[in-house]
Design goal:
Spore Coat Polysaccharide Biosynthesis Protein SpsA, Chain A; 9 strands; alpha/beta; single chain; 248 residues; nine-stranded mixed beta sheet; 10 helices
Length: 248
């Protein structure tokens, strides 16, 4: 991977959640080791999120939507705005550590048919939870005796330098890196899928001939409830559970 061309468009859809979004931006600025441009797609926030563009100015574009078209639509806006060869989707509630971006893109580039890569994470309900991956897929992942995000990343980097695995299931789209070429081949997210848009897109990536991977040296904290609050509102979730056709 050429450091001169390994630039990423980081797309962050938000709906309120100022504190978690600001914390995520601070982490990106502090810990990213490759060039990037951030696109914050603000889905009609009514809190201090609207002022993020005044607080941060480096490599940042804030798009303000007058209504809330939903998470997939916001991601699609960011995809079409950017031009870099890599894409990263993030949501509030995620915290990153040193080298996170370079680690994801390095494994993404290990084979031309890898279309998307995700990190290990802290969410016990997610298939990418580090404890679940250790138990079900990679017993070589060491047991942690620390809760510190940065120390866990250092330990994983020592054991799994530029290493990952291919997976059969879907990736969690609260933190995922993709090749723009793969997105060009696959198309935009289906905006009618709502919370299932990530799983749907993983199926479509595979149909387009790509495989999916996990970077074993990359670990992020994920506060699941913060992600839900900043992306989906309760009324739309209730409607989806009733299986009514909704646009989230």
């Amino acid at each position: 991977m050429d450091a001169c061309t390994a630039a990423a468009d980081i797309i962050i859809p938000v709906h309120n959640g100022f504190a978690s979004t600001r914390n995520l931006l601070e982490g990106i600025y502090r810990y990213s080791d490759l060039p990037f441009h951030i696109y914050v797609i603000d889905n009609a926030s009514d809190d201090a999120t609207v002022d993020l563009g005044k607080i941060y100015t480096r490599a940042l574009t804030v798009v303000r939507n007058r209504d809330n078209p939903g998470w997939p639509a916001a991601v699609n806006q960011g995809i079409q705005l950017g031009r870099n060869p890599y894409l990263v989707f993030l949501t509030g509630g995620v915290e990153v550590s040193a080298g996170w971006l370079g680690n994801l893109l390095a494994f993404l580039d290990t084979h031309p048919r890898i279309g998307a890569v995700g990190p290990l994470n802290s969410d016990p309900g997610d298939r990418q939870c580090v404890d679940r991956v250790r138990r079900e897929l990679v017993p070589q992942i060491p047991l942690f005796f620390t809760e510190d995000l940065h120390e866990r990343n250092r330990i994983l980097g020592y054991h799994f330098r530029r290493t990952g695995i291919l997976i059969d299931g879907a990736l969690a789209f609260f933190c995922v890196a993709l090749k723009r070429r793969a997105v060009d081949d696959t198309g935009l997210l289906d905006e009618t899928c709502g919370e299932e848009s990530g799983e749907d897109y993983c199926r479509r990536l595979r149909k387009a001939g790509y495989v999916l991977g996990l970077s074993l040296e990359t670990y992020v904290l994920h506060r699941f409830e913060e992600t839900r609050r900043t992306v989906f509102d309760r009324a739309r979730r209730r409607a989806q559970r009733r299986r009514r056709p909704v646009r989230i």
